[in-house]
Structure prediction request, 91 residues.
Amino acid sequence: MTKATILVVEDEPQLRESIRDLLQAEWYEVLTAEHGQEALDILKRLDNHIPDLIITGIMMPYMNGVELIEKVCLHPQWQVIPMIQMNARSE
Prediction:
């Protein structure tokens, strides 16, 4: 059985790794990126194997989650990928 692939995009290392560990321990292959630009680079390298889901933070350096979603939605091959945005602010 082929595992579904999830791309987790989050700049907070502890949160990113926690999400990865939780999902990977179950049924998913999990790819991670620290920010939107790194996520786009990963998508380009995957060629024809697109992720089944992208989970992204909103506030990140280099390219935030909103900009990432805009770029993904404009790409003909990627625009079919479901996306979940999350916001985790702490003081």
